[in-house]
């Protein structure tokens, strides 16, 4: 199946992966809390307009877009700061891929249900098995890995 071009604002990408990579580069090159300026603001604003719930995300209007951690995870994501002072996060994937299927949403809900327990078991495993550098041997690859 041939790759489908993606157009976001004035930017044209050969495929979704290229678009995601471009916006991920913006997300990762600035410190947390950075408000985007100039072309980066314009391009990420165009990305936001592709979100399936763009109107809800924008609501009272956009004052700025900043980079910060997600509200429900430690992952970086973009945050729209509205003119009324409220803040809403949005992901690159949702803007480019659209809504997830009902099955995928079910899988996400299942993962979130056990996430805290899995993280606690992982922390215990690292506590019991780490070397002097804080690494453990991956049971699958046999490589030394860090917690993150």
Describe the structure.
There is one protein chain. The chain has 148 residues and is of the alpha+beta class. It has 2 domains: 92 residues, Nuclear Transport Factor 2, Chain: A, CATH 3.10.450.40; 44 residues, no CATH class. The protein has 5 helices and 7 strands, in the order ββαααβββααββ. The strands form 3 sheets. Strands 3-4-5 form a 3-stranded antiparallel beta sheet. Strands 1-2 form a two-stranded antiparallel ribbon. A two-stranded antiparallel ribbon has the order 6-7. The chain is globular, with a radius of gyration of 19 Å.
What helical percentage do the residues reach?
Answer: 40-55%
**Average pLDDT level:** 90
First and last CA, distance: 35 Å
Counting H and I runs of at least 4 residues, what is the number of helices? 5
**Rg (C-alpha, Å):** 19 Å
Q: DSSP strand (E) fraction?
A: 15-25%
Helix/strand order: EEHHHEEEHHEE
What profile does the largest beta sheet have? 3 strands, antiparallel
Number of strands: 7
CATH class categorisation of the largest domain: Alpha Beta
Q: What's the architecture of the largest domain, going by CATH?
A: Roll
Low-confidence stretches: none
The total tally of domains equals: 2
Would you tell me which CATH topology of the largest domain applies? Nuclear Transport Factor 2, Chain: A
What structural class should be given to the helix and strand makeup? alpha+beta
Strand order of the largest sheet: 3-4-5
What is the overall shape? globular
